[in-house]
Amino acid sequence: MIEDGGSARGSVTTVRRVGDTVRRPRGRWTANVHALLRHLADAGFLRAPRALGVDEDGSEILSFLDGEVAMRPWPAALRERSGVVELAVWLREYHDVVRDFRPPCPDEWFVPGVSWRPGRLVRHGDLGPWNSVWRGSRLVGFIDWDFAEPGDPLDDLAQLAWYCVPLGGRATGAGGEESRVRVRERLAAVCTAYGAEPVSVLDALAGLQEREARRITDLGGRGLEPWTSFLARGDATAIEEERAWLLTHREGLLVG
């Protein structure tokens, strides 16, 4: 948790806490993100920051979600099956609320070259545990909406499963069959809570990983940050390895 007056550096921006608010730099995507957060607030969806405007320095102002961010080691709640169920329920509720959202600037997102069109849903885009905020066993909400972009809702669910089940060689490599069974059970719990079939989620994840690796290679190769930094630290290669693991173990994740 950021203390009042403190700051924290993420993969995209540095944020400052001022009282019960968070200040972060604006970008061309900010109008869409603020419109999205206002849409959520107007619909009574409380488990996301509220957009509060712009300060005298030109930084955006967001409400502060008070709680523990799920960095490793994960909080106890997220290590339990009930924790991933809580995440999936949050995502289902978010997708139901955002389905009729229309962004004011359809072509202005953090990721270049992305456009909204009717029929597309605006996904959070960065659903890792590092953006989830917890208070005890209760999910307070998700923060860091900079990567919000139009897409398929299954991509959000696939990303959530990837990072929070989690799905990958590092999740099961040292634990043998017991770890593989646990991963399979957590995946099934996520899919049941959201209302999706595991096979559809795994297929969506394979596609998402392929596109993410290609995006890092393309945008990083053109010198665009933060993808240049992602490329330099080996993220594209790591994602390709995660995808290879997924394709190898796909059938085992679907049985039992």
UniProtKB/TrEMBL annotation:
Record's keyword annotation contains Transferase: yes
Keywords: Transferase
Single Gene Ontology MF annotation: transferase activity
Pfam families in the record: APH (PF01636)
InterPro entries named among the record's database cross-references: Aminoglycoside_PTrfase, Kinase-like_dom_sf
Domain Aminoglycoside phosphotransferase: 121-186
Superkingdom classification of source: Bacteria
Protein's UniProt name: Aminoglycoside phosphotransferase
Gene (name only): milQ
